[in-house]
Amino acid sequence: HTFSYYETAQLDELIAFLNKVHKLAPVFDFKRAKENARILKIKLQEMCFFPHFTTQIAIVVFVTDLNDKAHKKRIVQANLRLLCNCSAYSFHRTRNKLGLG
């Protein structure tokens, strides 16, 4: 799957913000989060569903933490949403649309 210039710029911006969140709170695997961000962009484009940028960051961190087998303790969703400035409605709506819960 190839991205247009605009989509690539958006993906790069998402990865840059993920890096900032990781530096602020290193509770997830950044390398895996970059790959999850790319997969999320592809899936959202196929669905023609484009949530807010902060919601995308929260979903990527949530999925990365959810699939991390090295740690048993998970990120508290309320704290994650607060860190990313994401509303509960948009977070859970996006989760349900993507089939994550």
Write up what this structure looks like:
The chain has one domain (5-98). It is built from five helices and no strands. Helices cover 70% and strands 0% of the residues. It has 101 residues and is mostly helical.
Outline of this structure?
With 101 residues, this protein is mainly alpha-helical.
Secondary structure blueprint with pairings:
Layout: H1 5-24, H2 30-47, H3 53-66, H4 77-84, H5 88-98
Helix pairs in contact: 1-2, 2-3, 3-4, 3-5
- Figure out the total of helices: 5
Averaged pLDDT, please? 89
Report the helical percentage.
over 70%
- The H/E string reads HHHHH
Task: Please state the oligomeric state of the protein chains shown.
Answer: single chain
Can you tell me the overall shape?
A: globular
Contiguous uncertain segments of 5+ residues:
none
Number of strands: 0
Which sheet architecture does the biggest sheet show?
A: none
Determine the strand fraction and express it as a percent band.
under 5%
Please tell me the total number of domains: 1
Provide the structure class. Answer: mainly alpha
Distance between the termini: 26 Å
Radius of gyration: 13 Å
For this entry, give a set of tags.
single chain; 70% helix; 101 residues; mainly alpha
